[in-house]
What we know:
Oligomer: single chain
Helix content: 10-25%
Strand content: 35-45%
CATH topology of the largest domain: Diaminopimelate Epimerase, Chain A, domain 1
Shape: globular
Number of domains: 2
Structural class: alpha+beta
CATH superfamily of the largest domain: Diaminopimelate Epimerase, Chain A, domain 1
Order of helices and strands: EEHEEEHEEEEHEEHHEEEHEEEE
Distance between the termini: 6 Å
CATH architecture of the largest domain: Roll
Radius of gyration: 18 Å
Amino acid sequence: MTQQIVQVDAFTDQPFLGNPAAVCVLAEARDDDWMQNVAREMNLSETAFLRRENSGFSLRWFTPSTEVRLCGHATLASAHVLWEEGYLQEDEEARFHTLSGLLTARRVGNWIHMDFPAEPTQPEPAPSDLERLLGVPVLSFGRSARLGYALAEIGSEREVRRLQPDFARLRALPDIKGLIVTARASTPGFDFVSRFFAPTLGVDEDPVTGSAHCCLGPYWSERLHKLDFQACQASARGGIVQVLVERDRVILGGQAVTVMRGEFLY
């Protein structure tokens, strides 16, 4: 049985920027090994698999090496595909049943707004060798228990952009599935910048990470005393994320562009 697959650049309005994700809308159930093999074959940070349910779509995300609990850019890509390919009308809400509960998305002009759980970090002492592997001082450190992400604030946007972390040593840090490094923005029009590293998940650096902004929103809300943000993830590809903190939820806004359609033959 063949399977259509669509590749989408998420959190950008231009092809070849943002974060690429592959999306499969399944006509029937596929086993976990097949989904993992497809994700490995695509070799993107995430591949999304959807299947229609009565009240929406089941949605699962796989990196090239493992399934993950939450992924923003592949959810954005999935919603984009559902509207563009005619699975949903443009004024219909996309509803996703996931390992992180019900997630929803809706179109707002040229943007897509996604309703995600907030994932605040709890402050704690930074690992002893974190500054050495980053090469810069760490101002603040905390963890999100549910996602297994750590968040480190450093001194400047310039330092964030120039980071060249030691991925082998980062992989060895205990109980960290992903590391968010962030700073206040100096570029006009942005509130904060970040980068996201997840070598233990098979992704040394993720270009733009929606789930990381579920942590960044509450973090910067506490420090900047505001609820809405324009954020830049300063990877080589780069991407823009709108963030609105609403109590225990975070509304993430982004754009998306389809760049490729294909078909799996197996």
